[in-house]
Fold these 2 entries.
Entry 1:
Amino acid sequence: EVQLVESGGGLVQPGGSLRLSCAASGFTFSSYWMSWVRQAPGKGLEWVANIKQDGSEKYYVDSVKGRFTISRDNAKNSLYLQMNSLRAEDTAVYYCARDTVEGVADDWGQGTLVTVSS
Amino acid sequence: EIVLTQSPATLSLSPGERATLSCRASQSVSSYLAWYQQKPGQAPRLLIYDASNRATGIPARFSGSGSGTDFTLTISSLEPEDFAVYYCQQRSNWPPTFGPGTKVDIK
């Protein structure tokens, strides 16, 4: 059974940093693109970033470019999202997702809430 | 960025009825369109990818059609567990974008 478990969310002040982690199990992690998708409270979904199987390609939505960094450790079956210079508009539930093909998320974690507020 | 619009915003139906949800893209996305279901407090669940392919474990009452800019998700006979919000999503161009969602609620 595929399992994706996010951690690292919490309350942070504007301008602060957080690192999200996603522990994957139940599949060959190194064989899949992986993504982060977020959802602001009561709002729709936004694809934030994705990363190729070997980490050689990474893509970001414009709103987070230069502030967020996606990475992975295939030896630890883990996905990460380093978030710097956080803004109030980054407040959201952040989901880790496995891409069945690039850009199609077929398995999702339960999400971790990031709240940016003073 | 490709913009997706969904209609209607809310669909009020009874169990057993047929649901037809629409998604329109601001430019052609070929067949690179997916549909997701989301229930309150839960993560989205992939239903359909590449316009018409059902994801693993998705019941046959869910079907998708369309290409280019116009797409449809059909639920042939609503079950109680189908009342939820449905999002379309394109992967033709980066970034992948989602529509605003259609809420299917109980009439």
Entry 2:
Amino acid sequence: DTAVSQTPKYLVTQMGNDKSIKCEQNLGHDTMYWYKQDSKKFLKIMFSYNNKELIINETVPNRFSPKSPDKAHLNLHINSLELGDSAVYFCASSPPGRNLRNEQYFGPGTRLTVT
Amino acid sequence: KQEVTQIPAALSVPEGENLVLNCSFTDSAIYNLQWFRQDPGKGLTSLLLIQSSQREQTSGRLNASLDKSSGRSTLYIAASQPGDSATYLCAVYNNNDMRFGAGTRLTVKP
């Protein structure tokens, strides 16, 4: 009965590889997000997405791309991984409405380590 | 550019104490402010969401206040328990962006 789930929980990979992190929510929400938590524990929004609008944080490299096969899923694809991509990535969702104005529900996070 | 600061960075209290966590933000034109807790190695759990038109929200032993004009929010925890030990994060939303503070790491000693 997990509300927002992410897989995998841990991901260790080498520089230059391409990887994906999956996110699924069973809350019936129509907006989903990806966040990056860096080593200093700051959380930064990367994307917010619903079936109408993708909003990209302009600081996110274009090696990162969200892909949504349906409303309940928002996967994060990362191409040509770099050492600086090592972080914990969180997926979140919120109910219908004006995106970030609504309460967000977070997944457990995926710890990505790039070697 | 919105900046969110949380003070103190870490706090240790004995069980049963009431405590206050602080959050300040530089741009008062926010739509809402949300308090989360994060347990080690875990995701974020939403505690309270305050819309910009509200001044406070309460849930159980938690009370969050918002003073937009001064750019401040406080999270009050009454009768603290060891299970409250976690990192508490505040986040503000404005301009289609959500900014988090670095968090306050709370330890409640039995």
